[in-house]
Amino acid sequence: MDMTQKAEIGLIGLGVMGSNLALNIAEKGHRIAVFNRTTARLGPFMREAGALADRIVPCETIEALAEAIRPPRPIIVMVQAGAAVDEQIRHLKPVLSRNDIIIDAGNANFHDTRRRFAELEGSGLTFIGMGVSGGEEGARHGPSIMVGGTSESYDRIEPTLTAISAKYEGEACSAWLGPDGAGHFVKTIHNGIEYADMQMIAEIYGMLRDGLGMQAKEIGAVFARWNEGRLNSFLIEITAKVLAADDPQTGRPVVDVILDRAGQKGTGKWSAIEAQTLGVPATAIEAAVAARVISSMKTERLAAEAAYGPATAGRVSKDIVDDLELALFAGKIAAYAQGFAVMAAASKEFGWNLPMPTIAKIWRAGCIIRSQFLGRIAEAFDRDSGVANLLMAPDFVAMMKEASPALRRVVAVSAEAGLPAPALSSALAYFDGYRQGRGTSNLIQAQRDFFGAHGFERIDADGAHHGPWSG
Ligand code: NAP
Q1: Whose CA is nearest to atom 16 of ligand 1?
Q2: What topology is assigned to 3-180 in CATH?
Q3: What is the reported pTM?
């Protein structure tokens, strides 16, 4: 093949994300070579590509893929996370040459990314771990892209990533965030925050549906109204649309025929695990993960409802509706504060020097948690990137002072009514714990010293002390 005809970039994995990403890359004028394990996928993909097919080279083997790309080759691997990525790297290694870059764009666990990075060190090949958010639509028309690896390797693919990424007021939502696992870590926390956001929205939906007895379409209208205000975001927008949609088979609102059992692929759980490992409370994210687990226990839940009786729902006053909007906003502030605190701790632990304002900026468009609110977070970090916790940024203090009383009322009402609000209530508990100058752990310390002689600090003297316990 003539060098000028060779592709600039390659992509392995023509699933939902890979095929859309490939079309996005071709549309931005880049010649791309593609390969998929199941080669039968190539034909339909090329037909789907339409006029863009001119810039796409379909390859039946990994060898052909390598041959079709101009060295040094950047190759995006967009396959199922886990063993499939290692398998593709194994196949790629013998056909690649010095300075080629393998870019894992799936939702990898950042520990795997660090391992792969280390394994490829010294091989002449470079590894990049790249988080991509935005689902199918984002991949096709502009995702948010979070890159981890060496800055030199990022510089080589930066023009392509900038071209294909979402834009927020002209700024590309793609950035190099740090070495090795930094990009995949940030993507994981993005998803953890997404879990919390979605769970809190679902809890508010529960208050409207079960507490106030509202129908799906009425609830959708409430979310549509909220989307015009401070809650303006992709997730609120799609919630309104989802609630307005009818099921073609039954004519009923589609949400009413969907089984209440949520799936999960791991990024929420990983966020919670990493938060725990780093010693950072991320209670809203943990609650959201646990809520998905409880949702999966459908048979047990039905049996428990029969044993205990249903919630005393339907007794909630309509006055709560305005509080719900503010409560959701307060819960969101707490959840994002937790997510950013986890990233700050990981940045320290792994020496990544994560750029917090940049992270908030590249999440303003393209990704699933995109919102106006992220603009406020970016401004707060721009003013003070070292702020200990988002809850301490001056603008957020003001916002939380305004919104937290509503969160308190909503959590109280949901508890009274027996309607579960695990993410909202844990967000409130986190806030209350965080802003309590004198907590109650003096008692915990006393208990620990009593049964385990662990010692305690005193408020009036340095050093370790023991209590006057006996018996
Ligand atoms: P998908 O539609 O299920 O496609 C999976 C792709 O992985 C297919 O091309 C499949 O090839 C390939 N694959 C699976 N096992 C393989 C193996 N052992 N060796 C080689 N190829 C293998 O998945 P997707 O939604 O595009 O997701 C791809 C990655 O992006 C995942 O890491 C996912 O978590 C991440 N992601 C997804 C989304 C989303 O909204 N869907 C958003 C962000 C990130 P075959 O055709 O041969 O099966």
Answers
A1: 84
A2: Rossmann fold (3.40.50)
A3: 0.96
* Residues carrying an active site annotation: 187, 194
Question: 176 in the Ramachandran plot: left (φ > 0), alpha (ψ -120 to 50) or beta?
Answer: beta
> For 435-449, what is the mean pLDDT?
97
Q: Could you state, in order of their start, the residue ranges of all structural domains in the chain?
A: 3-180, 188-434
Given a cut of 60, whether residue 173 has pLDDT beyond it is yes
13 CB under 6 A from ligand 1? yes
- Say if ligand 1 is within 6 A of residue 79 CB: yes
* 150 CB neighbour count, 10 Å cutoff: 16
Decide whether any atom of ligand 1 lies within 6 Å of the 38 Cβ: yes
The verdict on the CB of residue 106 being under 6 Å from ligand 1 is yes
Does position 3 have pLDDT exceeding 80, yes or no?
no
Answer whether 190's CB lies under 8 Å from 131's CB.
yes
Half-sphere exposure for 83 (CA within 13 Å, toward CB):
0
**Does the N-terminal peptide bond of residue 72 adopt cis geometry, omega within 30 degrees of 0?**
yes
Other Cβ atoms closer than 10 A to 328? 26
Task: Give the closest residue (by CA) to ligand 1 atom 38.
Answer: 135
The predicted pLDDT at position 1 comes to 53
pLDDT of residue 259: 98
The per-residue pLDDT of the chain, averaged, comes to: 96
H/E element, 197: helix 182-206
CATH of domain 188-434: 1.10.1040.10
